[in-house]
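Hi all, posting the design record for the shared folder.

TITLE: backbone redesign
STEP: 1 of 1
STRUCTURE INPUT:
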C-alpha cells in the first residue's frame, strides 16, 4: 500500500518538479531576466492568485458547508508554532544571534501556498480537491498574517523596523476577506457566469505560473559558502522530525482525512520563499535564508512523497 501511495505522490511531485524546472531553465538561460521574474511573481501574487481565491470561494464555499472555517487560520498558527518550537531547540547548535534567527525563520515558515496547492491538484479527485482548495485558502489567511508580522520581526529584530500595517493586507489576504464578506452578505449570487467564467480561466493560470516563479527563484539564488552543519540541522528538523511529529499527531487524533492531509502536507513543506523577499526588502545579510530555501526544496522532492505516502497508507489501513 505504501508503494502504491508513493507512486501517486511521486507523480504529483514529479509534475511540480517539471514545472519548476521550466522556470529554473528560463532564468538560468537568461530567457527570463530577474526583472521579468519579479514581474511574473507580481502578476501571480497580486492578480491571478487573488482571482483564483475569489472564484473558488464564491462558487464552492458557504458558511453552512464550512461552519468551522475559522479553525483553519488557527491550524496555520499551530503549524508555525510547532516549527518555531522545534527550531528553537536546534538553535542551541547554531552560533551567532543573527544566524540563530535566520535558522529559526527557516524552521518556522513553510512554503504554504504554491507547493501544497500544486500537490493537491496533482493527487486528489475533483470533489476532494475543491474542499482542499478551500482549506488551503483559509489556512493562508493565518500564514500570511504570521509571516508578514512575526516573520519580519524575526529577520529584522535588531533594527528599528517601522511597523507597516499594509503588510498584513497582501492581495491574497484581501481576496480571502473580500470573498468571505460578499458570501456572508449573499452578494455572490448576483455575479453572472459571464463574469465568473473568464475570471476562473485567469485564476487557473496561477499554479503553473507560481511554479515557474518558484523554479526561477531557485535559479536566481546566489549561494556563497554553504554551512553544511546548519543545513543538515535544518533538513533534519524541518523536513524529517517535524512531519514525523505531525504524522503521529493526526493519526493519534484520528482527524478527518483532508484536515489530516492538510496538516501533514504543510509540516512536510520546505521553507517559505517569501523569507528571501523579506531579507532583500530590509537589506539584511543573507546568512542562511537562500541556502535553506534552495537545499530544502531539493531534499523535499524525496521527503514530501515519503511522508504523504506514509499518511495515505496508514490512514487507509485504519
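Okay, here is what came back for every position:
SEQUENCE:
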Amino acid at each position: 500500500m505504501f508503494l502504491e501511495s508513493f507512486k501517486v505522490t511521486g507523480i504529483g511531485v514529479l509534475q511540480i518538479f517539471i514545472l519548476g524546472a521550466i522556470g529554473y531553465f528560463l532564468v538560468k538561460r537568461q530567457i527570463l531576466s530577474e526583472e521579468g521574474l519579479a514581474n511574473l511573481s507580481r502578476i501571480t501574487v497580486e492578480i491571478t492568485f487573488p482571482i483564483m481565491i475569489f472564484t473558488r470561494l464564491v462558487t464552492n464555499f458557504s458558511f453552512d458547508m464550512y461552519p468551522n472555517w475559522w479553525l483553519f487560520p488557527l491550524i496555520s498558527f499551530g503549524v508555525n508554532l510547532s516549527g518555531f518550537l522545534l527550531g528553537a531547540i536546534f538553535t542551541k547548535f547554531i552560533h551567532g544571534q543573527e544566524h540563530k534567527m535566520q535558522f529559526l525563520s527557516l524552521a518556522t515558515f513553510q512554503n504554504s501556498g504554491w507547493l501544497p496547492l500544486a500537490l493537491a491538484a496533482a493527487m486528489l479527485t475533483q470533489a476532494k480537491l475543491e474542499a482542499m482548495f478551500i482549506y488551503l485558502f483559509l489556512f493562508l489567511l493565518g500564514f500570511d498574517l504570521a509571516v508578514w508580522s512575526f516573520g519580519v520581526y524575526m529577520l529584522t529584530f535588531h533594527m528599528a523596523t517601522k511597523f507597516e500595517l499594509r503588510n498584513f493586507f497582501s492581495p491574497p489576504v484581501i481576496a480571502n476577506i473580500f470573498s468571505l464578506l460578499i458570501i456572508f452578505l449573499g452578494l455572490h449570487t448576483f455575479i453572472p457566469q459571464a463574469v465568473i467564467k473568464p475570471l476562473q480561466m485567469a485564476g487557473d493560470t496561477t499554479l503553473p505560473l507560481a511554479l515557474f516563479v518558484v523554479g526561477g527563484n531557485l535559479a536566481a539564488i546566489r549561494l556563497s559558502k554553504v554551512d553544511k552543519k546548519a543545513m543538515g540541522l535544518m533538513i533534519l528538523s524541518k523536513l524529517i522530525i517535524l512531519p514525523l511529529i505531525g504524522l503521529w499527531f493526526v493519526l493519534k487524533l484520528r482527524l478527518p482525512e483532508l484536515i489530516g492531509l492538510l496538516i501533514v502536507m504543510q509540516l512536510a513543506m520546505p521553507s517559505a520563499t517569501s523569507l528571501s523577499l523579506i531579507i532583500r526588502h530590509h537589506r539584511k545579510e543573507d546568512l542562511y535564508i537562500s541556502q535553506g530555501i534552495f537545499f530544502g526544496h531539493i531534499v523535499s522532492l524525496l521527503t514530501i512523497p515519503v511522508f504523504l505516502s506514509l499518511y495515505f497508507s496508514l490512514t487507509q489501513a485504519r
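COMMENT: The chain has a mean pLDDT of 89.
Let me know if anyone wants the other runs.
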